[in-house]
Amino acid sequence: MLNxxxxxxxxxxxxxxxxxxxxxxxxVLALCITLLLSWSTKLEATPFLQGNWQPVPxxxxxxxxxxxxxxxGSPYKMGYQHxxxxxxxxxxxxxxxxxxxxxxxxxxGLARLAVRRSYPDAIAECRxxxxxxxxxxxxxxxxxxVAFGDVYHEFFGSxxxxxxxxxxxxxxxxxxxxxxxxxxxxxxxxDNNNSPIEYLLKNPTVFVRQPQDGIPHVSISAPGFIWxxxxxxxxxxxxxxxxxxxxxxxxxxxxxxxxxxxxxxxxHASSYKQARNLMESQPRMRANIIPIADGQSRQAGxxxxxxxxxxxxxxxxxxxxxxxxxxxxxxxxxxxxxxPPSSSPPRYDRLKQLLEPGGSYSRYGKIDxxxxxxILRDRINAYTFEASPLDVYDDDATIGGNGALWxxxxxxxxxxxxxxxxEVPVPSNPFxxxxxxxxxxxxxxxxxxxxxxx
Length: 454
What we know:
Oligomer: single chain
CATH topology: Penicillin V Acylase, Chain A
Distance between the termini: 32 Å
CATH superfamily: Penicillin V Acylase, Chain A
């Protein structure tokens, strides 16, 4: 399926045609007009001050299939280090995809629009990444297309290379009476419907980012991508992203990239309150469901958003919160498509069965990192109560069987996280433990009690 997509893009690039219909060209013309309007993305610097802490020098240490790279300094320097440390992996990006991004970015002017609507950090980081990979033919246009890819994916759908995007995902948070120790735990399954994306399966990457003017944080992504799918900073702020399917009226021609905004939250937000303020202050173009948690205050909220509207579901007295790929807030009832994606309601209802108190399947009050992993691996259908076979990549119904590309569990109070990645089925792989505190050299950092949750 992916190879067929690349071949199609090669033909598109040769013909110099954006899409098969005039409608797509009209969208591009409209964007060219509206996106050129000015948009302020300036955020105040948030230096990380903890005693005499100094950033760890840039280097790479792999943990099996998981690439781990340390970046530090200015956005340009971090981009350059990224390109050097992951040069060979970036070289494995399919040529057809890179060529297609160049065409869309330069010939159609979409890269210029991306620059206009991106945070200065993203532009500078792309410049550094490109300077480190000039021998591979990567250009600023193609890097900016990736940096702004979430927006273009929303507007153009499958017209752009499928390798850049995923479709699916499940989130859940538990704290207080729901957990054995009262701590807050946050889990995310990064899924893709129908078929796996080989580049992401082969290249799960932990970026240990140490910005000169912000909070050190870990970002989980892939080589060549400057934004996070998930992340946690040294203050305990944790974030990840789910897709949503908005109605056409909910797209906006003003605003910016949600994944770039997530990067800014990891860099600047030292609390849930600050993260919420940033979310509410930044204009958006597309729809997403983005849960944010704060391990220190044990607060969390699910931000259901489109380009024009947003509602927040926050933790209540039960201490559990969860999301899949449809809006639940009453304020957003008519803002996404109806019916929602077929796998979203059964996954949501299964999370409800497992997390809420009182049910026969409930794990309420017993939740710890091990139980969080069990829930991530759960392949029971919420309606039939049958388990899907492990050899089915995407059963279109269950939490652990929805086509996971990788899965992650965060303990933001202790700055620990566990990542499962590699061969499918991904949830069956060990959840490898990392200590962000140790990775950035914080005094008194919590240690992993075991190498992995098997």
